[in-house]
Design goal:
Elements: H1 4-21, H2 28-35, H3 39-43, H4 49-61, H5 73-89, H6 91-104, H7 108-136, H8 145-162, H9 169-183
Length: about 200
């Protein structure tokens, strides 16, 4: 029987090794050394370096997200952006994701898995968000979920994973509003400004 603690140690070691050297220089020997296990322990679980990496990608893609049902589309977008931004800011993720995307262009197996698991996850989360917004009457009934998900995920991923620009609170607020309007939710009603009472 395979021990869960050893499996977890191998997965942690893989993430650290990927961030340190990239997929091209990744080796089972180095992962085993970092995890403090034998190469046999890894090969009992995964048949190759590719299988090991793809399993980790699939597991990460299916990680838990908080329930995106805040009662409004803008609230859901804000929560989703905060969660995704936190994940993409992680030093390991910021190094691993661009490297795997580059490797996917050369490795059909990695490309297929990335396309399958990441796209499925995006559609699962984003599609549910769009469905809720349509039910609330915030979006038109004919809103295309696939296009909507691209509009939701694309700008944030580009800024954090590709351009690697910081994400301020004001930028996040602007992004939420821009995406909501772009999806057809209409502009938010501005809040009345508070004014100081006049001196008497």
């Amino acid at each position: 029987m395979l021990r869960d603690d050893i499996t977890a140690a191998i997965r942690r070691a893989l993430m650290q090794e990927l961030a340190a050297v990239g997929y091209g220089r990744l080796s089972i020997e180095a992962v085993a050394r970092r995890a403090g296990v034998s190469k046999t322990a890894i090969y009992r679980r995964w048949g190759s370096k590719v299988e090991l990496v793809l399993d980790i990608v699939a597991a990460a893609a299916h990680g838990k997200l908080p329930a995106l049902d805040t009662g409004s589309l803008r609230g859901d977008l804000t929560l989703l952006f905060q969660v995704v931004a936190h994940a993409l800011r992680h030093p390991l993720a910021s190094q691993i994701i661009p490297d795997l995307l580059a490797e996917a262009a050369r490795n059909p197996a990695i490309d297929e898995t990335l396309q399958k698991v990441l796209r499925a996850r995006q559609q699962e989360v984003g599609g549910h968000m769009i469905e809720l917004a349509v039910r609330r009457g915030e979006l038109p009934a004919d809103t295309d979920p696939e296009v909507a998900v691209d509009l939701i995920v694309g700008p944030l991923y580009w800024r954090l994973a590709i351009a690697r620009n910081p994400l301020s609170d004001s930028y996040l607020e602007t992004l939420v509003e821009s995406v909501a309007v772009g999806l057809g939710a209409g502009a938010a009603v501005p809040r009345p400004r508070r004014t100081a009472p006049a001196d008497r």
